[in-house]
């Protein structure tokens, strides 16, 4: 589909934080100073201008539309008819005496058809004028294109004059339409965002609302109205805007906040703001259309010399080594999808790891690690992605604690290491890893503060009979008097890991007017939550990334998700694809996403990318990245390898770069002769005899059982997922699988027999590709069934490009399936509601393995 990239590319040059009306003040002190400005309409105007610019940018880039064959056919007919009517159609074709002249006319016709179709998708009025001009010319020629003998009628002088007038008027209308579109979609957005001479109060007729319709008991509320164009009623109308949340010293939105614009394309945006600009993570939804968006943060490790948004043919590794950084990515998640999304913005510019390592060594007071730089951007508020009512009810200001969101559902899984609860860690040393006690708090028969509610009139009950029951509310302790953004205090008893405090409801027996007012105030400022709690386990929560405990918080059970992209993939492109997957799947906040960006070359540099990607330098950088994840406190890592990225990871594994880094699984009943020859391909049969299992956790009471992991010197490869992998099939069966089994208990492979990109890979490499032969992957060359979940995606046909190589982040079936794999750790046999098993057979006719397909109907099947 065509987009307005060529028309409105200038709008992308404006950064998201390009608000120049008020200078940025980095002073986070709460003390009053001469530069302090209280929140008001004037301080909110720059934010209003930025939010209006977001609306205009969505309108400028446009939405994806379904391809229509009828549109192309109709456009071709209109163009051919128009060219005939103005005298360069059938008449010129008849006078063409040579093939070059005829070919030139045909090429001109095809080019005009293509241009008109592409422009009409973006600017439909240009096509409407053309249709109108064709009808007028048809009337001028009196509806006659050909005479009775089949030759073209020769128009008279009047007809020629009228045709020229029509063409001139058409050209004027087309030019005026294009000029108007450029003015509204290019020039005006730049004026709204950058022009300091624009009188915002007068232009939008901004009026203050002295008494907001709804106020928050926790945050300050600013509300005003302005005049905007209503596309639904085709007129100017006045709409209200409100902001509820935190502010900086200049009175601009800063920290956790919610913006609500009641215009048709206005946004209800809740998340993290920075000096008047939403920087994410946040969730947003258009007020009138229902189009929803999600902004998340993703870290990256880059070791190529390519630019962040492009690649070069001569791919090469950065001689200075890898660099670390972070980015935000905004994606469409519901309703209409927009052309300019996913939109990636680098917020933590890549810094060389060597510089970060030297800085960490020089800082003797608080030694850090290189990965603390991107983690400082990733460890942000988990509350920012909660439901909208949380801002107005359950969150508190700087002087009071913040409620920790409670889980409404908890998944408990059995593993060889004991019971595993995604998103939770054990908080008691004596917790039994094989027993779990889950309780529900705040039953329905309890009031807001925990008192029992009777069926009669509560006002008639005595004070002695209305004693409040002790119902706990989970709270997240915060620093007092800090910056406008919350900073979580560390608990010394748990090595700096944040604990959840328990605050009980105040007794209703309090007497005196002062105590009564304090009880009532506490009632209003506290929202008792209903949910589930696990005895002896603590829920993993995000904290403020600017606090010193950002790295320490990563030891509280966070898991890393590393995406290794394929060839011809820039850094921002890889971040955008991973961000779309996480946004649609709504992955939990305790899973921290990263992208490993290697020198992937361009479309014509396939062999260059393969050579550089499988080099020892790239493998060494990938190993160093995994080591840094381990040093940062991550104990579990999930790897998603797409296309040639699978070849990169498998090559590093085969060469032994992850030995002593990834936790090795325990060998079941090993034989000395077999174990001693595990590194030799000649002992393939012996390799198949080796079975692995996860090492069990240590007994309760040990130091390692408190963190839930037995070995702090290695990191566990929890899942390894291959997405349309561009790797050699034979090498995987003979070598890579056995290496993977030694480290990873959960291997999943998504294969497509009709993958066009892998087809050309097989042609160029003259070897079978791992991602094009799903039925071959269930058994080894000697006939043994492999412990790999093979998912055949050949039958899927929704949100899939014709090449069928890159759709894992848009197809809903794959998104949900990847969620189950990464978050819940479910094997294919446990996903029966989505997958159907299909047995494969060996040459002797015996059943030897399963291949899974998705339970879904083709897109063209509908009810009659």
UniProtKB/TrEMBL annotation:
Region Disordered: start-end pairs: 479-522
Biased composition (Polar residues): 505-516
Transmembrane segments: 72-90, 102-119, 165-184
The entry's keywords: Membrane, Transmembrane, Transmembrane helix
Composition bias, Low complexity: 482-498
Family annotation (Pfam families): DUF900
InterPro entries found in the cross-reference section: AB_hydrolase_fold, DUF900_hydrolase
Superkingdom as given in the UniProt entry: Eukaryota
Stated name of the protein: Alpha/beta-hydrolase
Taxonomic source organism: Linnemannia exigua
């Amino acid at each position: 589909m065509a987009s307005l990239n060529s028309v409105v590319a200038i709008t992308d040059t404006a950064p998201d934080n390009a608000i120049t009306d008020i200078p940025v003040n980095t002073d986070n002190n709460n003390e009053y100073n001469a530069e302090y400005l209280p929140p008001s309409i004037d301080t909110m105007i720059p934010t209003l201008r930025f939010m209006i610019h977001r609306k205009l940018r969505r309108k400028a880039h446009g939405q994806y539309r379904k391809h229509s064959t009828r549109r192309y056919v109709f456009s071709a007919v209109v163009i051919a008819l128009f060219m005939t009517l103005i005298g360069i159609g059938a008449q010129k074709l008849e006078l063409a005496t040579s093939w070059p002249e005829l070919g030139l006319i045909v090429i001109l016709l095809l080019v005009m058809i293509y241009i008109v179709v592409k422009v009409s998708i973006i600017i439909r009025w240009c096509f409407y004028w053309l249709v109108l001009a064709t009808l007028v010319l048809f009337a001028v020629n009196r509806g006659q294109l050909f005479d009775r003998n089949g030759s073209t009628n020769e128009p008279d002088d009047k007809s020629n004059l009228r045709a020229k007038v029509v063409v001139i008027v058409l050209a004027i209308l087309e030019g005026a339409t294009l000029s108007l579109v450029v003015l509204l979609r290019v020039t005006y957005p730049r004026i709204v965002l950058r022009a300091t001479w624009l009188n915002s109060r007068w232009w939008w007729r901004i009026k203050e609302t002295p008494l907001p319709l709804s106020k928050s008991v926790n945050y300050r509320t600013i509300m005003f109205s302005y005049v905007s164009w209503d596309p639904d009623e085709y007129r100017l109308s006045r709409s209200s805007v409100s902001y509820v949340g935190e502010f900086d010293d200049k009175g601009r939105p800063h920290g956790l906040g919610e913006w609500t614009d009641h215009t048709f394309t206005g946004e209800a945006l809740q998340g993290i703001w920075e000096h008047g600009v939403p920087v994410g993570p946040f969730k947003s939804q258009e007020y009138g259309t229902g189009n929803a968006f999600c902004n998340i943060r993703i870290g990256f490790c880059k070791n190529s010399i390519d630019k962040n948004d492009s690649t070069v043919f001569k791919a090469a590794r950065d001689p200075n080594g890898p660099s670390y950084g972070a980015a935000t990515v905004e994606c469409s998640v519901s309703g209409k999808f927009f052309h300019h999304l996913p939109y990636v913005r680098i917020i933590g510019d890549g810094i060389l790891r060597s510089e970060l390592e030297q800085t960490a060594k020089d800082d003797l007071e608080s030694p850090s690690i290189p990965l603390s730089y991107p983690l400082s951007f990733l460890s942000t508020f988990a509350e920012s992605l909660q439901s909208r009512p949380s801002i107005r009810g359950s969150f508190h200001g700087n002087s009071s604690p913040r409620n920790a969101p409670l889980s409404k559902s908890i998944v408990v899984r059995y593993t060889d290491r004991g019971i595993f609860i995604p998103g939770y860690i054990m908080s008691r040393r004596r917790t039994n890893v094989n027993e779990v006690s889950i309780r529900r708090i705040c039953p329905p028969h309890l009031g807001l503060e925990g008192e029992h509610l009777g069926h009669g009139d509560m006002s008639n009950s005595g004070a002695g009979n209305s004693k409040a029951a002790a119902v706990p509310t989970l709270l997240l302790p915060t620093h007092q008097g800090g910056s406008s953004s919350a900073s979580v205090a560390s608990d010394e008893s748990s090595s700096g890991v944040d604990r959840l405090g328990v605050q009980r409801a105040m007794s209703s027996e309090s007497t005196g007017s002062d105590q009564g007012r304090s009880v009532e105030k506490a009632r209003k400022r506290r929202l008792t939550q209903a949910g589930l709690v696990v005895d002896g386990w603590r829920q993993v929560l995000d904290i403020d990334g600017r606090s010193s405990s950002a790295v320490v918080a990563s030891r509280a059970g966070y898991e890393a998700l590393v995406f290794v992209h394929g060839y011809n993939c820039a850094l921002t492109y890889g971040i955008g694809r991973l961000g779309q997957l996480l946004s649609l799947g709504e992955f939990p906040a305790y899973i921290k996403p990263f992208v490993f960006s290697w020198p992937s070359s361009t479309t014509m540099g396939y062999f260059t990318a393969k050579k550089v990607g499988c080099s020892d330098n790239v493998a060494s950088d990938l190993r160093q990245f995994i080591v840094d994840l381990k040093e940062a406190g991550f104990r579990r890592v999930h790897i998603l390898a797409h296309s040639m990225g699978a070849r990169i990871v498998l090559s590093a594994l085969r060469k032994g770069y992850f030995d002593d880094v990834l936790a090795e699984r325990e060998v079941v009943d090993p034989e000395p002769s077999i174990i001693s020859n595990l590194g030799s391909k000649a002992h393939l049969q012996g390799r198949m005899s080796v079975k692995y299992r996860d090492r069990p956790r240590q007994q309760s009471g040990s130091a390692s059982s408190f963190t839930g992991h037995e070995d702090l010197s290695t990191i566990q490869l929890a899942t390894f997922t291959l997405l349309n992998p561009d790797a050699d099939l034979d090498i995987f069966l003979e070598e890579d699988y056995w290496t993977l089994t030694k480290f990873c208990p959960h291997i999943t492979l998504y294969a497509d027999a009709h993958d066009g990109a892998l087809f050309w890979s097989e042609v160029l490499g003259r070897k079978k590709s791992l991602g094009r032969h799903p039925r071959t992957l269930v058994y080894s060359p000697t006939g043994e069934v492999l412990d790999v979940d093979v998912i055949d995606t050949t039958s899927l046909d929704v949100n899939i490009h014709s090449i069928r190589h890159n759709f894992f982040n848009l197809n809903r079936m794959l998104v949900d399936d990847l969620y189950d794999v990464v978050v819940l750790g479910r094997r294919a046999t446990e996903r029966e509601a989505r997958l159907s098993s299909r047995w494969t057979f060996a040459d002797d006719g015996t059943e030897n393995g399963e291949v899974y397909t998705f339970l879904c109907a083709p897109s063209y099947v509908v009810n009659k």
